[in-house]
Amino acid sequence: MANTMKMAILIATVALCMSSLLSLVYAGANINGYITGKVVCDPCINGGKPIKSAQMMVICFDKKTNDGTYARKGITNDVGVYKIAMKPGIEADYCEVRLHKNSPWKACKGIIPGKNVTTVNFNNKPVGLSNNKPVYAAADVIGYKRRRSLCN
Ligand SMILES: *[C@@H]1O[C@H](CO)[C@@H](O)[C@H](O)[C@H]1NC(C)=O
């Protein structure tokens, strides 16, 4: 009786370990890097002020066919930084990071042409590692401007 109980606990424990291991492997197989960058208010003034909870989207296209290959949304943290997971293979594609939706900062929501989108160059050296995967930086800081801002 006691032995059956121990056996049952053992099997349950092994099953639990296997499933958490499987979910780790699964995540690892589908994320092979990250794209990071920053969203600020008035990027042309002293580098700007970080915007928290700004939404952006990474969008990738096949360089030959122009077909969309990947799209994934992200959101900035307290210091205006986003980090978006990449699926395998998109290093070969053309990828952009676009501001998505409106600025969460009411007083700083103006679009600055050319600063509402940036690119990612995967030929550049990764800026770091996250979960042992390379982290690539977007080419530019993107952002919004205040109403009477000198940014344009
Ligand atoms: C960026 O802003 C320009 C100018 O307002 C606009 O034409 C373009 O559609 C915007 N791009 C994105 C990705 O939002």
Structural topology:
Elements: H1 2-30, E1 33-41, E2 49-50, E3 55-61, E4 68-75, E5 81-86, E6 94-99, E7 108-111, E8 117-120, E9 128-130, E10 133-137, E11 142-146
The chain binds 2-acetamido-2-deoxy-beta-D-glucopyranose.
Explain what the structure shows.
- The chain folds into two domains: 1-30; 33-145, Immunoglobulins (Immunoglobulin-like, Sandwich).
- Helix content is 19%, strand content 39%.
- The chain contains one helix and eleven strands.
- Strands 1, 2, 5, 7, 9, 10 and 11 form a seven-stranded mixed β-sheet that branches.
- The longest helix is centred in the first third of the chain and has 29 residues, at 2-30.
- The radius of gyration is 21 Å and the shape is globular.
- The termini are far apart.
- The model is unreliable at 16-28 (pLDDT under 50).
- Bound molecules: 2-acetamido-2-deoxy-beta-D-glucopyranose.
- 2-acetamido-2-deoxy-beta-D-glucopyranose (NAG) binds at residues 98-99, 111, 113, 116-117.
- 2-acetamido-2-deoxy-beta-D-glucopyranose binds at residues 98-99, 111, 113, 116-117.
Compact summary:
Belongs to the Ole e I family. With 152 residues, the chain is of the alpha+beta class.
